[in-house]
Task: inverse folding
């Protein structure tokens, strides 16, 4: 099942700045080959649900390898079965 997800991963207990950890997550997401757009509070990702959830698991595992003992994740996603739709399609529909 194809989804468009909004993902936010927050490493907990590592201090006020998490940018080094976010860079690690960004590298993993970029290497995944999934269509994605990073924004100020997370990342939009589109792909098959299994691929997106595997990606989230990979990101969390990497943070654990880096010594992060607690990770807080939120993911909101949508599906559409009546027609294929990408993130770009959704945004383009606003201009019609």
Result:
């Amino acid at each position: 099942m194809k989804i468009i997800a909004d993902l936010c991963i927050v490493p907990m207990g590592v201090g006020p700045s998490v940018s080094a950890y976010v860079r690690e997550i960004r590298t993993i997401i970029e290497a995944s080959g999934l269509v994605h757009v990073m924004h100020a509070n997370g990342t939009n990702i589109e792909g098959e649900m299994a691929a997106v959830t595997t990606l989230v698991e990979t990101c969390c595992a990497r943070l654990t390898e880096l010594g992060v003992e607690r990770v807080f994740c939120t993911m909101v996603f949508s599906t559409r079965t009546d027609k294929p739709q990408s993130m770009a399609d959704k945004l383009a529909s606003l201009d019609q």
The longest helix spans residues 49-65. Strands lie at 2-12, 35-39, 42-48, 70-78. The mean pLDDT is 96.
